[in-house]
Amino acid sequence: MNRAKFSEWSGGVKALSLLLAALLWLGVALERKGELKLMVPLRPKAVPAGFRLESPLPEQLEVTVSGPRILLCRLPFSRLSCGLDLDATAAGTLSFAPRHSSLGLDRELSVVRILPASMRLTLVKETQVR
Amino acid sequence: MTFLLQNIGVLRDLLDLSLAALIIARLSRLLKEGMALRILGVLCLLAAGHLLSRLFSLQTVRLLFDTFLASSVVVLAVIFQTDIRRTFAALSRSRAQSDVEMSDVIDELVFAVAGLSQKHIGALIVIERGISVDNYLAVGTDIDAKVTSELISSIFLPYSPIHDGAVIIQRGKLTKAGCFLPLTQNPEVSKSLGTRHRAAMGLSELVDAVVVVVSEETGTASVVVDGKKTDILDLPALGKLLRRLVEPRWLK
Lengths: 130, 252
Description:
Shape of chain A: rod-shaped
Largest sheet of chain B: 7 strands, mixed
Strand order of the largest sheet of chain B: 2-4-3-1-5-6-7
CATH class of the largest domain in chain B: Alpha Beta
Strand content of chain A: 35-45%
Oligomer: heterodimer
Structural class of chain A: alpha+beta
Largest interface: A-B, 27 and 36 residues
Number of domains of chain B: 2
Shape of chain B: elongated
Number of strands of chain B: 7
Strand order of the largest sheet of chain A: 4-1-3-6
Order of helices and strands of chain A: HEEEHEEEEH
Number of helices of chain A: 3
Number of helices of chain B: 9
């Protein structure tokens, strides 16, 4: 190996060592726990036939998620939504707290808080409105 | 001070990253040239694969990458056990002992050069340093022997079949003899210099080796480094110069 090749090899080893160290460091740093605040749209589903929601629902929920940063950094790009299952509900006013499981998050992520924590909604028969 | 305290996290991360890079670079020096690059490349791919599979929650792929990464330490230790053993053996040896060994090699060289110089026998001795000289050696006979003044003197005796070439000293051992070296292409080199000196200059222009030349005509000993020739007036000066130029690690 001549001088040019030696310095090329030495430079290559240094660059790859730095790259490997950076990748390992990223692996460790991104495993640290962090928190992320997200605005998640609220989607009512399975509204019983002949009924409609009278009270307006908030369009979005403010969800704070905690977990490894590597999983958190993917969340803004995933289409999260909070489903509000109204199946088997009857006419009247009911209090509803969004369930953490309804967000469909990774098992390693946990929901710290959801705002609003609970909401009241009124379901009325469409004929009643007319 | 306030700035330092405010950015202690960033500084800690930078220190963490730098130390990791330093450790990896030092460890990769234990391996042979191209092998280190290949292994580092594979490890980079494994680490990148781990990160990507983690990011996209590909559990099975992640399991594979994690298994490869975790076992790579053991696999590398098994593959390179000889190199690791050699390094630990060198580490455990005391510095005093290595100094004695270095002193032995240089003393033997100085004795040989003194004898050859006195008898006007031409000689060309290459001491390899950081950069390998193997790619520049044409022909030659493998020897792999301890450096002794008797061996060097007998190689350069005119009736020896391998006297017409260079003797190579690598890692404190006499590894080859009768090797032809590339001649210098420098037009500024004096025309009075013979082939032996031109060969010494030619090699030292390409690698960082130290070349000792004994002139057949004048009996003068010279040391050539980086294409520059230094004539040696007395033998203690040769020993002193060689000890300055050749670090103990290159004779291990």
